[in-house]
Protein backbone atom coordinates (compact mmCIF):
# COMPACT_ATOMS: atom_id res chain seq x y z
CA UNK A 1 0.00 0.00 0.00
CA UNK A 2 2.79 2.41 0.95
CA UNK A 3 4.73 1.55 -2.23
CA UNK A 4 1.62 2.11 -4.37
CA UNK A 5 1.11 5.55 -2.83
CA UNK A 6 4.73 6.52 -3.47
CA UNK A 7 4.96 5.25 -7.04
CA UNK A 8 1.44 5.49 -8.42
CA UNK A 9 -0.71 7.58 -6.09
CA UNK A 10 1.54 10.61 -5.80
CA UNK A 11 2.46 10.75 -9.49
CA UNK A 12 0.22 9.10 -12.03
CA UNK A 13 -2.84 9.00 -9.73
CA UNK A 14 -2.56 12.68 -8.92
CA UNK A 15 -2.32 13.62 -12.59
CA UNK A 16 -5.36 11.50 -13.47
CA UNK A 17 -7.37 13.16 -10.71
CA UNK A 18 -6.30 16.62 -11.86
CA UNK A 19 -7.38 15.85 -15.41
CA UNK A 20 -10.75 14.57 -14.20
CA UNK A 21 -11.37 17.63 -12.03
CA UNK A 22 -10.49 19.98 -14.88
CA UNK A 23 -12.97 18.19 -17.13
CA UNK A 24 -15.68 18.42 -14.48
CA UNK A 25 -15.08 22.15 -14.07
CA UNK A 26 -15.38 22.60 -17.83
CA UNK A 27 -18.65 20.68 -17.79
CA UNK A 28 -19.93 22.93 -15.00
CA UNK A 29 -19.14 25.85 -17.30
CA UNK A 30 -21.43 24.19 -19.84
CA UNK A 31 -18.70 22.91 -22.11
CA UNK A 32 -19.21 19.52 -23.74
CA UNK A 33 -16.88 16.82 -22.40
CA UNK A 34 -16.39 13.09 -22.78
CA UNK A 35 -17.23 11.70 -19.34
CA UNK A 36 -16.28 8.10 -20.16
CA UNK A 37 -12.56 8.52 -19.24
CA UNK A 38 -13.60 10.01 -15.88
CA UNK A 39 -15.83 7.01 -15.24
CA UNK A 40 -12.94 4.66 -16.04
CA UNK A 41 -10.62 6.48 -13.61
CA UNK A 42 -13.23 6.40 -10.84
CA UNK A 43 -13.84 2.68 -11.35
CA UNK A 44 -10.10 2.02 -11.28
CA UNK A 45 -9.77 3.81 -7.93
CA UNK A 46 -12.61 1.73 -6.50
CA UNK A 47 -11.19 -1.53 -7.88
CA UNK A 48 -7.82 -0.72 -6.33
CA UNK A 49 -9.54 -0.61 -2.95
CA UNK A 50 -10.46 -4.27 -3.43
CA UNK A 51 -7.05 -5.30 -4.71
CA UNK A 52 -5.07 -3.56 -1.97
CA UNK A 53 -6.90 -5.59 0.67
CA UNK A 54 -6.99 -8.78 -1.42
CA UNK A 55 -10.68 -9.38 -0.60
CA UNK A 56 -14.05 -8.67 -2.15
CA UNK A 57 -15.61 -5.89 -0.11
CA UNK A 58 -19.15 -4.54 0.03
CA UNK A 59 -20.06 -1.70 -2.33
CA UNK A 60 -19.89 1.00 0.37
CA UNK A 61 -17.23 -0.53 2.58
CA UNK A 62 -14.82 2.24 3.73
CA UNK A 63 -11.78 0.14 2.81
CA UNK A 64 -13.07 -0.51 -0.69
CA UNK A 65 -13.56 3.23 -1.21
CA UNK A 66 -10.37 4.36 0.56
CA UNK A 67 -8.38 5.00 -2.63
CA UNK A 68 -11.34 6.69 -4.35
CA UNK A 69 -11.96 8.99 -1.40
CA UNK A 70 -8.30 9.84 -0.76
CA UNK A 71 -7.24 10.43 -4.35
CA UNK A 72 -10.44 11.84 -5.81
CA UNK A 73 -13.41 12.61 -3.57
CA UNK A 74 -11.63 14.89 -1.09
CA UNK A 75 -10.28 17.11 -3.87
CA UNK A 76 -13.54 16.93 -5.81
CA UNK A 77 -15.60 18.17 -2.85
CA UNK A 78 -13.10 20.92 -2.04
CA UNK A 79 -13.10 22.26 -5.60
CA UNK A 80 -16.88 21.92 -5.81
CA UNK A 81 -17.21 24.18 -2.77
CA UNK A 82 -14.80 26.71 -4.28
CA UNK A 83 -16.61 26.71 -7.63
CA UNK A 84 -20.07 27.26 -6.16
CA UNK A 85 -18.87 29.82 -3.63
CA UNK A 86 -17.66 31.94 -6.55
CA UNK A 87 -20.93 31.39 -8.38
CA UNK A 88 -23.05 32.34 -5.35
CA UNK A 89 -21.02 35.53 -4.85
CA UNK A 90 -22.57 36.90 -8.05
CA UNK A 91 -26.01 36.95 -6.39
CA UNK A 92 -25.98 40.34 -4.66
CA UNK A 93 -29.52 41.67 -5.08
CA UNK A 94 -32.99 40.35 -4.24
CA UNK A 95 -34.14 41.61 -7.65
CA UNK A 96 -32.16 38.72 -9.15
CA UNK A 97 -34.01 36.10 -7.07
CA UNK A 98 -35.88 34.47 -9.97
CA UNK A 99 -32.70 33.94 -11.97
CA UNK A 100 -30.77 32.75 -8.93
CA UNK A 101 -33.21 30.14 -7.59
CA UNK A 102 -33.69 28.66 -11.06
CA UNK A 103 -29.92 28.44 -11.41
CA UNK A 104 -29.58 26.74 -8.02
CA UNK A 105 -32.33 24.24 -8.82
CA UNK A 106 -30.61 23.49 -12.12
CA UNK A 107 -27.22 23.05 -10.43
CA UNK A 108 -28.68 20.58 -7.93
CA UNK A 109 -30.13 18.55 -10.78
CA UNK A 110 -26.85 18.65 -12.70
CA UNK A 111 -24.79 17.47 -9.72
CA UNK A 112 -27.17 14.60 -8.98
CA UNK A 113 -26.91 13.54 -12.61
CA UNK A 114 -23.13 13.87 -12.51
CA UNK A 115 -22.80 11.54 -9.54
CA UNK A 116 -25.18 9.00 -11.06
CA UNK A 117 -23.36 9.14 -14.40
CA UNK A 118 -19.72 8.64 -13.46
CA UNK A 119 -18.96 9.11 -9.74
CA UNK A 120 -19.64 6.82 -6.79
CA UNK A 121 -23.08 7.12 -5.21
CA UNK A 122 -21.60 7.65 -1.73
CA UNK A 123 -20.35 11.08 -2.87
CA UNK A 124 -23.84 12.49 -3.46
CA UNK A 125 -24.75 13.19 0.18
CA UNK A 126 -21.57 15.16 0.91
CA UNK A 127 -21.81 17.04 -2.39
CA UNK A 128 -25.44 18.10 -1.88
CA UNK A 129 -24.68 19.19 1.68
CA UNK A 130 -22.00 21.53 0.31
CA UNK A 131 -24.36 22.92 -2.33
CA UNK A 132 -27.14 23.45 0.22
CA UNK A 133 -24.69 25.24 2.50
CA UNK A 134 -23.03 27.44 -0.13
CA UNK A 135 -25.96 28.20 -2.44
CA UNK A 136 -28.86 28.31 0.04
CA UNK A 137 -27.89 28.55 3.72
CA UNK A 138 -25.22 31.21 3.15
CA UNK A 139 -27.63 33.23 1.00
CA UNK A 140 -30.71 33.07 3.23
CA UNK A 141 -30.95 36.82 3.84
CA UNK A 142 -31.05 37.59 0.12
CA UNK A 143 -33.38 34.66 -0.57
CA UNK A 144 -35.82 35.88 2.08
CA UNK A 145 -35.70 39.38 0.62
CA UNK A 146 -36.33 37.81 -2.75
CA UNK A 147 -39.36 35.97 -1.35
CA UNK A 148 -40.94 39.33 -0.52
CA UNK A 149 -40.28 40.46 -4.09
CA UNK A 150 -41.90 37.31 -5.52
CA UNK A 151 -44.96 37.63 -3.27
CA UNK A 152 -45.40 41.27 -4.21
CA UNK A 153 -45.23 40.39 -7.92
CA UNK A 154 -47.36 37.23 -7.61
CA UNK A 155 -44.64 34.97 -9.07
CA UNK A 156 -46.16 31.61 -8.15
CA UNK A 157 -43.86 29.40 -10.20
CA UNK A 158 -40.77 31.03 -8.72
CA UNK A 159 -42.25 30.83 -5.20
CA UNK A 160 -42.63 27.08 -5.69
CA UNK A 161 -38.94 26.78 -6.60
CA UNK A 162 -37.92 29.00 -3.68
CA UNK A 163 -40.02 26.91 -1.26
CA UNK A 164 -38.44 23.68 -2.51
CA UNK A 165 -34.94 25.11 -2.02
CA UNK A 166 -35.65 26.41 1.48
CA UNK A 167 -37.12 23.02 2.40
CA UNK A 168 -33.60 21.60 2.00
CA UNK A 169 -32.31 23.69 4.91
CA UNK A 170 -33.60 22.74 8.40
CA UNK A 171 -35.66 25.55 9.94
CA UNK A 172 -35.52 27.82 6.88
CA UNK A 173 -39.26 27.52 6.18
CA UNK A 174 -40.19 29.16 9.50
CA UNK A 175 -38.84 32.54 8.40
CA UNK A 176 -40.70 32.17 5.10
CA UNK A 177 -43.93 31.72 7.06
CA UNK A 178 -43.28 35.00 8.86
CA UNK A 179 -42.68 36.76 5.54
CA UNK A 180 -45.88 35.33 4.02
CA UNK A 181 -47.96 36.28 7.06
CA UNK A 182 -46.64 39.85 7.07
CA UNK A 183 -47.27 40.18 3.33
CA UNK A 184 -50.88 38.96 3.60
CA UNK A 185 -51.52 41.21 6.59
CA UNK A 186 -50.17 44.35 4.89
CA UNK A 187 -51.94 43.51 1.64
CA UNK A 188 -55.22 43.04 3.47
CA UNK A 189 -54.85 46.33 5.32
CA UNK A 190 -54.09 48.20 2.11
CA UNK A 191 -57.02 46.69 0.21
CA UNK A 192 -59.48 47.43 3.02
CA UNK A 193 -58.19 50.98 3.46
CA UNK A 194 -58.68 51.59 -0.26
CA UNK A 195 -62.39 50.75 -0.01
CA UNK A 196 -63.00 52.01 3.53
CA UNK A 197 -65.30 54.90 2.63
CA UNK A 198 -67.50 52.78 0.37
CA UNK A 199 -67.50 49.74 2.65
CA UNK A 200 -68.79 51.69 5.64
CA UNK A 201 -72.10 52.08 3.81
CA UNK A 202 -72.00 48.93 1.66
CA UNK A 203 -71.00 45.77 3.52
CA UNK A 204 -71.07 43.75 0.30
CA UNK A 205 -67.91 45.52 -0.83
CA UNK A 206 -66.16 44.78 2.45
CA UNK A 207 -67.01 41.09 2.69
CA UNK A 208 -66.34 40.50 -1.01
CA UNK A 209 -62.84 41.98 -0.67
CA UNK A 210 -62.05 39.87 2.39
CA UNK A 211 -63.19 36.69 0.65
CA UNK A 212 -61.18 37.63 -2.44
CA UNK A 213 -58.01 38.16 -0.40
CA UNK A 214 -58.50 34.92 1.52
CA UNK A 215 -59.07 32.87 -1.62
CA UNK A 216 -56.17 34.48 -3.48
CA UNK A 217 -53.67 33.37 -0.86
CA UNK A 218 -55.39 30.04 -0.27
CA UNK A 219 -54.82 29.25 -3.96
CA UNK A 220 -51.21 30.45 -3.70
CA UNK A 221 -50.56 28.18 -0.70
CA UNK A 222 -52.00 25.14 -2.45
CA UNK A 223 -50.01 25.86 -5.60
CA UNK A 224 -46.65 26.86 -4.10
CA UNK A 225 -46.29 25.37 -0.60
CA UNK A 226 -47.57 21.82 -1.09
CA UNK A 227 -45.32 20.20 1.48
CA UNK A 228 -46.43 22.59 4.23
CA UNK A 229 -50.01 23.38 3.22
CA UNK A 230 -51.61 22.95 6.62
CA UNK A 231 -49.09 25.16 8.44
CA UNK A 232 -49.26 27.87 5.76
CA UNK A 233 -53.06 27.81 5.95
CA UNK A 234 -52.57 28.52 9.65
CA UNK A 235 -50.40 31.48 8.65
CA UNK A 236 -53.15 32.67 6.30
CA UNK A 237 -55.76 32.43 9.05
CA UNK A 238 -53.55 34.36 11.44
CA UNK A 239 -52.83 37.14 8.93
CA UNK A 240 -56.50 37.51 7.98
CA UNK A 241 -57.51 37.62 11.64
CA UNK A 242 -55.06 40.44 12.20
CA UNK A 243 -56.10 42.65 9.31
CA UNK A 244 -59.80 42.01 9.94
CA UNK A 245 -59.21 42.96 13.57
CA UNK A 246 -57.33 46.13 12.70
CA UNK A 247 -58.45 48.17 9.72
CA UNK A 248 -60.24 51.40 8.99
CA UNK A 249 -63.67 49.75 8.79
CA UNK A 250 -63.60 47.68 11.97
CA UNK A 251 -62.12 50.58 13.91
CA UNK A 252 -64.79 52.95 12.60
CA UNK A 253 -67.60 50.53 13.45
CA UNK A 254 -66.21 49.32 16.75
CA UNK A 255 -66.18 45.70 15.55
CA UNK A 256 -63.21 43.38 15.92
CA UNK A 257 -62.36 39.72 16.00
CA UNK A 258 -61.75 40.02 19.73
CA UNK A 259 -65.50 39.97 20.18
CA UNK A 260 -65.50 36.47 18.70
CA UNK A 261 -62.60 35.07 20.66
CA UNK A 262 -58.89 35.15 19.94
CA UNK A 263 -58.47 31.80 18.23
CA UNK A 264 -61.13 31.95 15.50
CA UNK A 265 -60.04 30.99 11.99
CA UNK A 266 -60.46 33.67 9.35
CA UNK A 267 -63.00 31.58 7.44
CA UNK A 268 -65.14 31.50 10.59
CA UNK A 269 -64.60 35.22 11.09
CA UNK A 270 -66.22 35.94 7.75
CA UNK A 271 -69.32 34.02 8.75
CA UNK A 272 -69.50 35.48 12.26
CA UNK A 273 -68.68 39.04 11.30
CA UNK A 274 -72.16 39.68 9.94
CA UNK A 275 -73.74 38.40 13.17
CA UNK A 276 -71.64 40.78 15.26
CA UNK A 277 -72.58 43.77 13.12
CA UNK A 278 -76.26 42.88 13.14
CA UNK A 279 -76.21 42.72 16.94
CA UNK A 280 -74.50 46.11 17.12
CA UNK A 281 -76.35 47.78 14.25
CA UNK A 282 -77.06 50.86 16.36
CA UNK A 283 -73.32 51.54 16.41
CA UNK A 284 -72.64 51.12 12.69
CA UNK A 285 -73.88 52.32 9.35
CA UNK A 286 -73.53 48.91 7.66
CA UNK A 287 -76.69 47.22 6.38
CA UNK A 288 -75.65 43.56 6.41
CA UNK A 289 -79.15 42.16 5.81
CA UNK A 290 -79.21 43.85 2.41
CA UNK A 291 -75.57 43.09 1.68
CA UNK A 292 -75.75 39.38 2.41
CA UNK A 293 -78.78 39.04 0.14
CA UNK A 294 -76.84 40.38 -2.86
CA UNK A 295 -73.20 39.33 -2.43
CA UNK A 296 -71.95 37.12 -5.30
CA UNK A 297 -75.52 36.06 -6.20
CA UNK A 298 -76.03 33.64 -9.10
CA UNK A 299 -79.57 32.84 -10.16
CA UNK A 300 -80.81 29.28 -10.06
CA UNK A 301 -83.31 29.38 -12.93
CA UNK A 302 -86.07 26.82 -13.18
CA UNK A 303 -86.13 25.99 -9.46
CA UNK A 304 -89.50 27.39 -8.46
CA UNK A 305 -90.94 24.73 -6.18
CA UNK A 306 -89.82 24.44 -2.56
CA UNK A 307 -90.38 20.75 -1.87
CA UNK A 308 -87.62 18.90 -0.05
CA UNK A 309 -86.50 17.21 -3.28
CA UNK A 310 -86.39 20.49 -5.19
CA UNK A 311 -84.47 22.14 -2.38
CA UNK A 312 -81.86 19.39 -2.41
CA UNK A 313 -81.42 19.81 -6.17
CA UNK A 314 -81.19 23.58 -5.79
CA UNK A 315 -78.55 23.32 -3.07
CA UNK A 316 -76.56 20.78 -5.11
CA UNK A 317 -76.66 23.03 -8.17
CA UNK A 318 -75.47 26.10 -6.28
CA UNK A 319 -72.69 24.18 -4.48
CA UNK A 320 -71.34 22.80 -7.76
CA UNK A 321 -71.53 26.20 -9.49
CA UNK A 322 -69.69 27.91 -6.66
CA UNK A 323 -66.98 25.24 -6.52
CA UNK A 324 -66.57 25.17 -10.31
CA UNK A 325 -65.78 28.88 -10.11
CA UNK A 326 -63.73 28.95 -6.89
CA UNK A 327 -61.99 25.53 -7.18
CA UNK A 328 -60.86 25.68 -3.53
CA UNK A 329 -62.97 27.00 -0.66
CA UNK A 330 -63.33 26.57 3.07
CA UNK A 331 -66.39 24.69 4.33
CA UNK A 332 -67.61 27.70 6.32
CA UNK A 333 -67.44 30.14 3.42
CA UNK A 334 -69.13 27.65 1.08
CA UNK A 335 -72.05 27.23 3.48
CA UNK A 336 -72.37 31.02 3.78
CA UNK A 337 -72.31 31.57 0.00
CA UNK A 338 -74.90 28.85 -0.65
CA UNK A 339 -77.17 30.48 1.93
CA UNK A 340 -76.72 33.90 0.33
CA UNK A 341 -77.44 32.72 -3.20
CA UNK A 342 -80.63 30.85 -2.26
CA UNK A 343 -81.97 33.40 0.21
CA UNK A 344 -84.46 34.96 -2.23
CA UNK A 345 -86.07 31.57 -3.03
CA UNK A 346 -85.89 29.86 0.35
CA UNK A 347 -83.65 29.92 3.41
CA UNK A 348 -81.83 26.58 3.46
CA UNK A 349 -81.00 25.10 6.83
CA UNK A 350 -77.30 24.77 7.62
CA UNK A 351 -77.78 21.05 8.24
CA UNK A 352 -79.23 20.61 4.72
CA UNK A 353 -76.27 22.39 3.10
CA UNK A 354 -73.82 20.31 5.12
CA UNK A 355 -75.57 17.07 4.12
CA UNK A 356 -75.52 18.07 0.45
CA UNK A 357 -71.79 18.89 0.69
CA UNK A 358 -71.14 15.45 2.18
CA UNK A 359 -73.29 13.79 -0.49
CA UNK A 360 -71.44 15.59 -3.31
CA UNK A 361 -68.15 14.59 -1.68
CA UNK A 362 -69.23 10.95 -1.54
CA UNK A 363 -70.29 11.13 -5.20
CA UNK A 364 -66.89 12.48 -6.24
CA UNK A 365 -67.81 16.06 -7.15
CA UNK A 366 -65.84 17.46 -4.21
CA UNK A 367 -63.01 16.27 -2.01
CA UNK A 368 -61.54 17.41 1.28
CA UNK A 369 -57.97 18.68 1.37
CA UNK A 370 -55.60 16.10 2.82
CA UNK A 371 -53.86 18.69 5.01
CA UNK A 372 -56.91 20.62 6.21
CA UNK A 373 -60.28 18.85 6.31
CA UNK A 374 -62.05 22.23 6.50
CA UNK A 375 -60.90 23.00 2.94
CA UNK A 376 -62.97 21.65 0.03
CA UNK A 377 -61.66 21.19 -3.51
CA UNK A 378 -63.64 20.84 -6.74
CA UNK A 379 -62.99 17.63 -8.67
CA UNK A 380 -63.02 18.39 -12.39
TrEMBL record:
Superkingdom of origin: Eukaryota
Gene3D superfamilies, sorted: Cullin Repeats, Winged helix-like DNA-binding domain superfamily/Winged helix DNA-binding domain
Domain Cullin neddylation: 307-374
Full protein name: Cullin neddylation domain-containing protein
Pfam family, one: Cullin_Nedd8
GO-annotated molecular function: ubiquitin protein ligase binding
Organism taxonomic ancestry: Eukaryota, Metazoa, Spiralia, Gnathifera, Rotifera
UniProt record similarity statement: Belongs to the cullin family.
Biological process (GO), any one: ubiquitin-dependent protein catabolic process
This protein's UniProt keywords: Isopeptide bond, Ubl conjugation
